[in-house]
Amino acid sequence: MSVILDTIIVGGSPAGLSAALVLGRCLRNVVVCDAGHPRNEPARIFNGYLSRDGSSPREFLDVSRDQLRRYETVQVRQAFVTDVRRGADQFAAVLESGERLFARTLLIATGVVDELPEIENFPQFYGKSAHSCPYCDGWEVRGQPLAVIGETQGAADLAIELLLWSTNIALCTNAVAASYNEKAARTLQRVGVKIVTKRIARLEGKDGELEGVRFTDDTILFRKALFFSPGQFQRSSLAEKLGCDFCPEDGCIQCGEGTATCVPGVYAAGNCSTGVQLVIAAVAEGMQAAFAINNALLEADAASGALRHAAVGKT
User: Fold this and answer.
1) Which of 74, 123, 168, 187 could form a disulfide with 24, with the two C-beta atoms 3.0–4.6 Å apart?
2) pTM given for the model
């Protein structure tokens, strides 16, 4: 007979690992299924996390996983979840290997994927000198000549926002007609953001360090870093398969109180469910999800008369 876990966490993200930590301390039987490719994998460092400012994503994950090892009820597994099926009182997660895991609750912490601009060699600079978040990376390039790639309202707003970090900002629309509103157009002109409408041929630089943006007319705009406002999509289709609702404005999983989705027993935390895409915010959401999951399990056990002491190891 298969073991029924308390929770399956899909995604070994900061949100997922944070939830696993809290649930482990509640003596909950948890398996974290980690496919191994976090959104910030290309980044050299992440910032804005008190006590870990300037850490690398790999260092953070290694430390987090190491700290989970002392909790006997928590497993972190390198595994890709291909499907989740909801039964009357449990969930069945199907792994790529064909193995099935069963649990009373499910936490989706699979994150999102950024859509990179279709520019030659862009991935070589992504996470090193091509960024999407000025709160994460603006300080490191303060005072430098910066570019913003895009023609949308989000790109225009980003160019204006970057004036906090530099007075030398160029908005490169890549030969696409601007779709930002008149107010943004007037603001860009008033604050001195340079608008470049030529088509981009490629980025130039060495070892991920941007030196300039080369256009198809062979001119170059010398820049030390660039920012872009990416489109995003859910990394996993599991929430959609389970019938979760999504926010129409950004495609994030819609959650109510305590990170609960509209599907009973299903919770979501981290970038897949929020607009604040910072590691520290994801960790906080994971903790919030763990509290909600633990409380829901307590209520279910109390109602069924199954509430019991589940301590393992030392007492």
Assistant:
1) 74
2) 0.90
